[in-house]
Write a structure and sequence with these properties.
This protein is mainly alpha-helical and about 325 residues long. Helices cover about 55% and strands about 5% of the residues. The longest helix has 27 residues, at about 310-335.
């Protein structure tokens, strides 16, 4: 102590613990940090779809290449070598690049692995978005065509086509419906359907998740559709409130699979509208809703759109129709 070289045992222990912590931080691998990062995202409220997408990209492209490396030893050259294997696959390249960049930026923020600077410097081209703001005629079906395509489906699946069109539901939302989601069916003028979940075929295993873009909503059902819903419930749906509205033919306690539904849909549409997309039934319903006089806010709520610009597409479609009809008035004026 007199020579000022004595270090109290408490300080020695603290110093030793600090070194051990630093060594552990420096030994953190990319794979270990990836698991921690995804858990943090889930705790922070990121959607299951987002974390599943990250996990899929990590497992397919990132971790096989650099997963065993320590975070602190990964270099730009390592990242470039990983991405070089995806040359010619722009979608996979962009997903891998974006995920890797986010992974390391989060590590820097959390000081994981002792990182103070990200080794990833990548310019990712922004996806080119279509500037088209109108709904094309090829996106729409007539009521008779909708009915014909529904008639071509197996009886247990036909109601899904009608709900997608006239309640403007996504396929996942149709398959996510349960018996208890329908109310006031005894009075067609008051009947509603509650969109509370979707059946997510991309989950592993497939599972119920929140509707896309947090689009829970309650929708009025066109009165003419109510008897068909009641008939379907009585014929194809189990009695409990949580029973899938459109059950699987293999396991009635589970919804029909998106694959099975899509196969039936492809067969049903061909004699009526070859190549017509199932999602275009939703376009059909929302355009009809706009033509009936719905406001932009009403369109946004019925379609479950966060972005008003998306709902505006259907008002543009109505305007185009109005212009076409107005031009026909020219004949009378010219006379």
């Amino acid at each position: 102590m007199a020579r000022r070289i004595f270090i109290p045992p408490r300080e020695l222990r603290a110093s030793r613990r600090s070194r051990e912590v630093e060594e552990l931080r420096g030994a953190l691998t990319v794979r270990e940090w990836a698991d921690d990062w995804l858990a943090r995202l889930a705790d922070a409220g990121r959607s299951p779809g987002t974390t599943r997408s990250y996990r899929s990209t990590l497992d397919a492209h990132v971790l096989p290449a650099i997963g065993a490396m320590r975070l602190a030893e990964v270099s730009q050259d390592d990242v470039d070598a990983m991405l070089a294997k995806l040359k010619g696959k722009p979608g996979a390249w962009a997903n891998a690049a974006r995920t890797t960049r986010s992974l390391f930026l989060a590590a820097v923020s959390a000081r994981a692995g002792g990182l103070t600077e990200s080794p990833v410097s990548i310019t990712i081209p922004k996806p080119v978005k279509s500037r088209e703001t109108t709904v094309r005629d090829t996106d729409l079906a007539t009521p008779a065509e909708v009915r014909a395509m529904a008639a071509g489906m197996p009886p247990a699946l036909a109601i899904g086509v009608l709900l997608a069109a006239w309640c403007s539901l996504r396929l996942g939302e149709v398959l996510g419906l349960q018996r208890g989601d329908f109310d006031h069916l005894e009075d067609p003028d008051k009947a509603v359907v509650h969109v509370r979940r979707q059946w997510n075929s991309k989950a592993s295993p497939p599972a119920y998740t929140e509707p896309k873009a947090d689009s829970r909503r309650t929708l009025s059902i066109p009165p003419a559709l109510v008897p068909e819903i009641v008939d379907h419930l009585g014929t194809h749906t189990r009695p409990e409130r949580t029973a899938p509205f459109i059950p699987s033919s293999q396991n009635p306690t589970m919804p029909a699979s998106q694959t099975a539904f899509d196969l039936a849909w492809r067969k049903a549409r061909e004699p009526v509208r070859p190549g017509f997309r199932f999602h275009s039934l939703r376009h059909t319903g929302l355009t009809a809703y706009a033509q009936a006089g719905a406001t932009l806010k009403e369109l946004q709520e019925r379609g479950g759109h966060k972005d008003a610009a998306v709902a505006l597409r259907y008002q543009h479609a109505t305007l185009e129709r109005d212009r076409a009809l107005a031009k026909k008035l020219d004949v009378g004026l010219e006379a």
